UniProtKB/TrEMBL annotation:
It comes from Heracleum sosnowskyi. Keywords: Kinase, Nucleotide-binding, Transferase. NCBIfam families: adk. It comes from the Eukaryota. Its EC number is 2.7.4.3. This is adenylate kinase. It catalyses: AMP + ATP = 2 ADP. GO terms for molecular function: AMP kinase activity; ATP binding. The keyword Transferase applies. PROSITE patterns: ADENYLATE_KINASE. It is an enzyme of class 2 (transferase). Monomer.
């Protein structure tokens, strides 16, 4: 029985794009809930993965999603980056977005869907297929819209203790010239309330970026705490949405990238051949 899609008015542009986007190409790995979302397989009808990354602000969604995108050959689409690109532009949304972001509030569904649709259409024109979404969906309504228009294979929920999250966010820096992100925080969190001790080394910039680092305007303690509060209130129900559909994979980050990356690959049943070759060299 064929599925009938009924987009709401607010989801029309995303719906129109993703209906075109569904026929995907090039062999890769995917998964279905019936087989276990944790064990990608080769699909008899090759198609690229369609994954979502969830997690609190600052948890590292962008870092791990971008690494997986390089490994799997799919685009990394971060709605936070889309918002920041719009903020840096002179478009009509920039002033409105600046007020929302600087207060630590969530950007409206309509704005996010509009930005995401524009990004997907631009990618399609360049021959992109498949994706890892980072920062979308953040609400039940967004998840329902996405559910109406495409099949998400797997949702990875990254988790990290809140005191470490706060310290990470306050240590974030961006190179004003190349746009790459770094972190100057050297984290050594002690065992607390049953949570294990955790160490995370700083992610320092190369010499050519060191003098050009800037702090994001929303990376203040007050704003970060508000963003975490909003996330807990509005976004955590999205976890239950995907958990009930058998698509959610919980992953507790054990530390920084050196500790977490190989364990994440293992949880996803993936191999990083480049990393193995580098280690053997």
């Amino acid at each position: 029985m064929n599925r009938v899609f009924r987009p709401t008015s607010s989801s029309t542009s995303l719906f129109n794009y993703l209906i075109k986007f569904r026929p995907l190409s090039t062999a890769t790995v995917t998964s279905t809930p019936s087989e276990s979302s944790l064990h990608p397989r080769t699909d008899p009808k090759p198609r690229n993965v369609q994954w979502v990354f969830l997690g609190c602000p600052g948890v590292g969604k962008g870092t791990y999603a971008s690494r997986l995108c390089s490994l799997l050959g799919v685009p990394h689409i971060a709605t936070g980056d889309l918002v920041r690109e719009e903020l840096a532009s002179t478009g009509p949304l920039s002033t409105q977005l600046a007020e929302i972001v600087n207060q630590g509030k969530l950007v409206s569904d309509e704005i996010i869907i509009s930005l995401l649709s524009k990004r997907l259409e631009a990618g399609e024109s360049k021959g992109e297929s498949g994706f890892i979404l980072d920062g979308f969906p953040r609400t039940i309504r967004q998840a329902e819209i996405l559910e109406e228009v495409t099949d998400i294979d797997l949702v990875v929920n990254l988790k990290l203790r809140e005191d470490v999250l706060l310290e990470k966010c306050l240590g974030r820096r961006i190179c004003s010239q190349c746009g790459k992100g770094f972190n100057v925080a050297s984290i050594n969190a002690e065992e607390k309330n049953g949570l294990p001790a955790m160490s995370m080394a700083p992610l320092l910039p190369p010499p050519n970026c060191a003098s050009k680092l800037i702090t994001r305007s929303d990376d203040t303690e007050l704003v970060v705490k508000e963003r975490l509060r909003v996330y807990n209130e509005k976004s955590q129900p999205v976890e239950d949405f995907y958990r009930s559909r058998g698509k959610l994979m919980e992953f507790d980050l054990p530390g920084g990238i050196p500790e977490s990356w190989p364990k994440l690959l293992d949880a996803l049943n993936l191999d990083d051949q480049e990393q193995k070759q580098s280690a053997a060299a």
